[in-house]
Design brief:
CATH superfamily of the largest domain: Hypothetical protein af1432
Radius of gyration: 35 Å
Strand content: 5-15%
Largest sheet: 5 strands, parallel
Number of strands: 5
Distance between the termini: 88 Å
Shape: elongated
CATH class of the largest domain: Mainly Alpha
Strand order of the largest sheet: 2-1-3-4-5
Number of domains: 2
CATH architecture of the largest domain: Orthogonal Bundle
Helix content: 55-70%
Number of helices: 15
Structural class: alpha/beta
Order of helices and strands: EHEHEHEHEHHHHHHHHHHH
Length: 378
């Protein structure tokens, strides 16, 4: 006699046969070991199979009126809720063609009539154990996928916090910038989404790259940690010599990220874009920018987006060397620099989404009464 564990008694077997005597025989054989449900027609079998808890195994007669076993099996396989329930045909049909047809439809086994109790119990137990193993693997895979997703989310959060912590380090040298990091990050994201379907930008601005560019954006001025206070915080106009020193922050930031990239044990995607943004966000479309004097398309897309975002925010916010500027005036200045300071298509995207830029500026506004008053008047 086949040995059974307590787990077996929690498993459900659905037996389907249009002959009551056959249901009685199978029921009496299986009930000592399993929960047994019975159906005397294909239609009723489908209704029972759809109920919770779902059967763990179906013993299905082939030759039944109205809906035969093949039709029942096809319907079970078509329904996502029942397609994974193993089905064993119980039939007097024993030709190779009959078996092949059943296997083609998804049956897992054949038990031929007349029934031999030991064979039936052994086959049922074997298929239930296989299903139990498959269910365990499925649950383990689901758990592992959820755990991977959780850890990925956690790592992304740590990465985000680390990026902002590094960027805030630079901001501590220049405290009047306030929420500059958050605003410019959202400006960049807005521009990127507006340009995502543009023929010139579509190849680069995938959802993934937009996310990477936006996450990298807060590092654009990290090189300011290397600029002396008497220059960085000077309230007046910089001398030519001081300006040359100030401009080195782009290269200093890029080199710092490059060193971090070399120190990393594995490649980190956003480092490449962070280096682009940090080094080239002061380049100009006409080639008059710094540090490398790149012209037009030679400037990476990420840096072109950052350039406009950075300038717009600088215009509308108070600095030690200037008062804040009204939004509309800043918009007009950006528009006037189309094709000179900025990529023309990036400016066009800015103008289309100008209301979003205003909303971002308000949402992440600095605690500055003059700024609040200025926004209220617009």
């Amino acid at each position: 006699m086949v040995a059974f564990t307590e787990q077996a008694f929690r498993q459900t077997v659905l037996i389907v046969d249009d002959t009551p005597e056959n249901l009685i025989v199978l029921g009496e054989l299986l009930q000592p070991y399993y929960r047994v449900r019975a159906a005397s027609s294909g239609a009723r079998a489908l209704r029972i199979a759809a109920l919770d808890p779902k059967p763990d195994l179906v013993l299905l007669d082939v030759m039944m009126p109205e809906m035969d076993g093949y039709a029942v099996l096809s319907r079970l396989r078509d329904d996502p809720a029942t397609r994974d329930i193993p089905v064993v045909f119980v039939t007097a049909m024993d030709t190779i063609e009959d078996e092949q047809r059943g296997f083609d439809l998804g049956a897992v086994d054949y038990i031929t009539k007349p029934l031999r109790p030991a064979i039936v119990l052994a086959r049922v137990r074997a298929h239930l154990e296989l299903k139990q193993a498959r269910d365990w693997l499925r649950d383990q895979n689901a758990f592992l996928e959820a755990e991977v997703a959780r850890r990925l989310s956690e790592n992304l959060l740590i990465q985000e916090v680390s990026i902002h912590a590094l960027a805030r380090l630079a901001e501590t040298r220049d405290p009047e910038t306030g929420n500059h990091l958050r605003r410019t990050q959202e400006y960049v994201r807005t521009l990127a989404k507006q340009l995502q379907s543009h023929p010139r930008f579509a190849a680069f601005l995938s959802d993934r790259n937009i996310d990477l560019v936006a996450r990298s954006a807060p590092l654009h001025d990290i090189g300011k940690v290397g600029i002396p206070d008497h220059i960085l915080l000077k309230p007046g106009k910089l001398t030519p010599e001081e300006w040359e020193i100030m401009k080195t922050h782009a290269q200093l930031g890029s080199e710092a990220i490059e060193q971090a990239e070399r120190d990393a044990e594995e490649p980190v995607e956003f480092f490449a874009l962070a280096k682009e943004i940090t080094r080239w966000h002061h380049e100009r479309w006409d080639g008059s920018g710094y540090p490398d004097g790149f012209i037009g398309e030679a400037i990476p897309v990420s840096a072109r987006l950052m350039a406009l975002a950075d300038v717009f925010d600088a215009l509308i916010c108070r600095r030690v060397y200037k008062p804040p500027m009204p939004f509309t005036q800043a918009r007009d200045i950006i528009a006037a620099e189309r094709g000179r300071h900025f990529d023309p298509d990036v400016v066009d995207a800015f103008l289309v989404d100008f209301d979003k830029f205003e909303a971002i500026a308000e949402r992440y506004g600095d605690a500055d009464e003059s700024l609040i008053a200025r926004i209220a008047k617009i």
